[in-house]
Amino acid sequence: MKEKLGFCLFILVLILGISSCLGKFVVEKNSLRVTSPESLKSVYECAIGNFGVPQYGGTLVGTVVYPKANQKACKDFKEVDLSFKSKPGGLPTFLLVDRGDCFFTLKAWNAQNGGAAAILVADDRDEPLITMDTPAEENANADYLQNITIPSALVSKTFGDTIKNALSKGEMVNINLDWREALPHPDERVEYELWSNSNDECGPKCDSQIEFIKNFKGAAQVLEQKGYTQFTPHYITWFCPESYLLSKQCKSQCINHGRYCAPDPEQDFSRGYDGKDVVVQNLRQVCLHKVANEVGKPWIWWEYVTDFAIRCPMKEQKYTKECADQVIQSLGLDLKKIDECIGDPNADVDNPILKAEQDAQIGKGDRGDVTILPTLVINNRQYRGKLDKGAVLKAICSGFQETTEPSVCLSEDIQTNECLVNNGGCWQDKATNVTACKDTFRGRVCECPVVQGVKLSGDGYTHCAASGYQRCAINNAGCWKQTRDGKTYSACDESSNGCKCPSGFTGDGVTCEDIDECKVTGACKCPHCKDCKNTWGSYECSCSDSMLYMHEHDTCIIKEARIVGSWNLVWVVFFVLAAAGGGGFLVYKYRIRRYMDSEIRAIMAQYMPLDNQVGERESHENLLSRGNV
Q1: Among candidate residues 235, 377, 213, the one with its CA nearest the CA of residue 304
Q2: What is the tens place of the pLDDT at every residue in 81-98?
Q3: Are 102 and 142 in contact (CB under 8 A)?
Q4: What is the pLDDT of residues 264-296, one digit of tens each?
Q5: Which residues, in sequence order, are bridge partners of residue 32?
Q6: Contacts of 562 (CB under 8 A, 6+ apart)
Q7: CATH of 190-400, one of 3.40.640.10, 3.40.50.620, 3.40.30.10, 3.40.430.10
Q8: What CATH architecture does domain 29-135+145-179 belong to?
């Protein structure tokens, strides 16, 4: 009894520590739109329950019913002979119930068994909206908790009273629950965190947490290996107030001299493992993810956590460092680096890893403080709902920007493909099986596609067409084209964006018909023309008196004259070329001869005087003789 009391006092101490370091708790909300009656048409806020399966990325339309009996939904509706199953062709039923007298989860379970598609809980006091959560551990043993599948939402007392008033007057209240903007979806990568605990003795919550990790491991690893997501594990720790540092409770539940603490796993200080054992194992899992991330394999964290839960459970007294090291070594990670990251739990210093974890618990931006375990955070927004593989995968898929979702998000298990029904109302070319309908997690979008490297342009709903270079390569840009007897004619012209029938055809370019030139255009009407015959895309015409028909000029010419003229031209060209060649040869021969003569004279001048040189010498001697006289 004393040990139980000590545990309660320690929890109170931790609460005091939490209140001094955490700032805010953000209630995650979704949009609720009333579509009728006219007097209530507007958009209202409601708080997403932390159980069931919210339809992240989707919408749900239904009509509201407020039961005549069992209005707090704390009993099975069979006991009051009420059913809320919608009739064929009718809208789903949203059951409005009052808060109080039993757990939120029990109200949802009874509403689900009664046939409701969703439950709206009207607050019983005027206050800001809160998050409806599952019961505390001592009351969380009910088997139904993990079987709640309908979405739930808490609405304000004022709004609840307004709906009840409208229903009492016989008015039909239709509501559209919209989760499309419940999570941000800024780009093609989703970043998400899981705040969990290595403790496996905390009851149904711990069981459901490790079950989720086992089931989600495959999808998580594939998403991260292909670069679609970035996952980060986190763990909640608290500190022990300075005035309690020397107490038995702080010493057994904390490491690093009270800086990092966790509650006793069994909630009993007299047996089993202590809270400090949980803190060290949590730290080991953070360090393992850090080391695995450094070697480019952060997804190994999922392998370690699942293997550790199987091989090292508390119940079998295997929740030890030795067992953890065996699991780490089997995964091929550097055990020494992980131990260095963990550091000395007994040292009176800050541990940088756990200090960062405590800082991360405090909400930033739109994300509130992390106070509930386990907590999933997607794109910096806390997830609310059942921790189930299908529900979480649907929430993660809603975090991708439209048209960037991986194929796993477009499977039938996650969403319906609206493009399969009437092509989603988008443009389609059935001849080439090209469509503007693009399936996304939030629904279809009509967007003209890119085909064979060419971007089609249009509104995507009624029209898409190729434009610019190579537009004729795609279904001939919607223009007419036909092949017959080895001849192909096309109305597509890449130099323009329109369709124009080629010569020999008439039409709007989308359809073209052959022109009978013999009848319509007056072809083959020259004086010597005869026997006009229409062909596909053209015509044939012959001439009398052995003449030749010139198709482009629609005239006949004399065949012999054409031949004689041709030969005369050939001979003229031949003689001109021959004369030019002969003249060129004579010029060449003359220049060669002159060159050779000059070379010979130069050589001979070196050995004997030439005539002009003798004359020059005699003139020189005469001048000398005159000078002597």
Answers
A1: 213
A2: 999 988 877 788 999 999
A3: no
A4: 888 777 788 999 999 999 999 999 999 999 999
A5: 44, 177
A6: 548
A7: 3.40.30.10
A8: 3-Layer(bba) Sandwich (3.50)
